[in-house]
TrEMBL record:
Lipid metabolism found in the keyword field: no
Organism for this UniProt entry: Echinicola pacifica
The family this protein is said to belong to: Belongs to the MoaD family.
Protein name: Molybdopterin synthase sulfur carrier subunit
Record-level GO BP terms: Mo-molybdopterin cofactor biosynthetic process
Length: 79
């Protein structure tokens, strides 16, 4: 599964595009987050981490196909 990472998530993972192995064809977002937290424990230090699937914010129960476009969106601040 290809996962785009932005902002602090990019800094933590070390890349803006992660090739992340997922064994099942479909997983829930909450399960994907658990796998990501296991591989990149510093992601748990973020106050929040949104996941988008095919350009839409996803809930914890959203099903993700390994061919979907997935992105990690950390909290953002601006001025």
């Amino acid at each position: 599964m290809k996962i785009h990472a932005f902002g602090a998530a990019k800094d933590i993972t070390g890349s803006s595009l992660i090739d992340f192995p997922v064994e099942e064809t479909f997983v829930k977002v909450k399960d994907l987050k658990s796998l990501l937290y296991a591989k990149y424990p510093d992601l748990t230090n973020l106050p929040s981490l949104a996941i988008s699937v095919n350009l839409f914010y996803a809930s914890e129960d959203t099903m993700v196909n390994k061919h979907d476009e997935v992105a990690l969106i950390p909290p953002v601040s601006g001025g």
